[in-house]
Amino acid sequence: MVGWAHGPPFAGIMAPSDPVQLDHERRIRRLEEARLSIENTLFAMLELDRREAAKSKQHAARMAHLDQTMIEIGDKLNGLIGWADGTVKKKPPKKRNGHKQ
Length: 101
Prior knowledge:
The chain has one helix and no strands.
């Protein structure tokens, strides 16, 4: 292994207009732009996930409330059916003189 005290011997030798150096700098800029784009996309995805989780919690709460309401309606309906069934099974009232029912 060769040890260089201040980097490789060709560092700093390239001219500012060297096509290899310019190409390298363009690639570095494109990589940085791509990294920023990916980072922004990830932040957006995290925010969407956070919002979706909040909506899911609200939906679950609404569904729980709706389930409870449906149970209460079912109980009331069963009670009404029982009352109506008992009313129908009773003997019909006797006819009075000349009055129709």
